[in-house]
Structure prediction request, 233 residues.
Amino acid sequence: RTLAELDAHLVSCRACPRLVAWREQVGREKRAAFRDETYWARPVPGFGDARASVVVVGLAPAAHGANRTGRMFTGDRSGDFLFAALHRCGLANQPESTGRGDGMVLDGVRLVAPVRCVPPENRPTPQERRRCAPYLARELELLAPTLRVAVALGAIGWNALLGSLSEQGWSVPRPRPRFAHGAELALQHLDGGPRRLTVLGSYHVSPHNTSTGRLTPSMLDAVLGRAATLAGH
Ligand code: SF4
Prediction:
């Protein structure tokens, strides 16, 4: 399968009844500010470079962000914070991501998530996470030829990412290292070849973290700058 084929399969997935019902309910009810828009209300594919050297792994689409626009991290405050940082670090051609057709181009970066449908209260169940995991795994496999760095935003992304990489033969230590902002983990592929991958941890870009100063622009810039350096940008 190619990335385009994976995305085509993903966007018609209805495997999680609770999330299918929720994504469609949010899309019908809408937020007042967006009442004239047609919400995407489907699973959200990865966004960015199909030959990415850096992936950024979030959590799940936001109700009125990616679940509305259909583009990962686009249309909410989390995305505003992330895209501005990607632009400052030379990984995006513009600082604002508003929706399809806005001209946003990511250079060497792809944004992905371990859960592709918006969960109520941003909390997917363990079963929903397990069900969605193969989409992230397959996307990572398809990106593997060019991938050098994976940035996990928050503990859920970190654990999902390390779980996937471990199953794909990367040297993830046991017990699995715990998530921390600024964590850095250098992995080798156990096929004995020359492949290397570095995993970096950052606090998630949610307003819960960014409005309280737990994650500042300069903290995120440091992680993304490190990712760009490791990936040879
Ligand atoms: Fe399918 Fe993933 Fe959405 Fe569940 S969360 S319905 S597995 S795309």
User: Anything to note?
Assistant: The longest strand covers residues 196-202.
